[in-house]
């Protein structure tokens, strides 16, 4: 992930790019409760820490 720039949050599309997933897949993960988004006005955003936690959980399952 691109934490070198100090990004704290990503749009759904940007999160999908970071995870190498489609926007639709990210929305499915949100609906399934695997990724927690937050709203800023009308925008749906995902914290960088939430993406890191999602990857960490998937790595534990894969191990």
Report on this structure.
The protein has one domain: Arc Repressor Mutant, subunit A, CATH 1.10.10. Helix 1 crosses helix 2. It is 51% helix and 17% strand. Strands 1-3-2 form a three-stranded antiparallel beta sheet. It is globular. The protein has three helices and three strands; from the N terminus they run E-H-H-E-E-H. The protein is an alpha+beta fold.
Low-confidence stretches: none
CATH class: Mainly Alpha
The CATH architecture is Orthogonal Bundle
Sheet of most strands: 3 strands, antiparallel
Helix content estimate: 40-55%
Give the distance, in angstroms, between the N- and C-terminal Cα atoms: 21 Å
Main features:
alpha+beta, 3-stranded antiparallel β-sheet
Brief account:
The chain is an alpha+beta fold and 63 residues long. The chain contains three helices and three strands; from the N terminus they run βααββα. Strand 2 and strand 3 form a beta hairpin.
Sequence-ordered SSE layout with sheet pairings:
Blueprint: E1 9-11, H1 12-19, H2 23-31, E2 38-40, E3 43-47, H3 48-62
Antiparallel strand pairs: 1-3, 2-3
Helix pairs in contact: 1-2
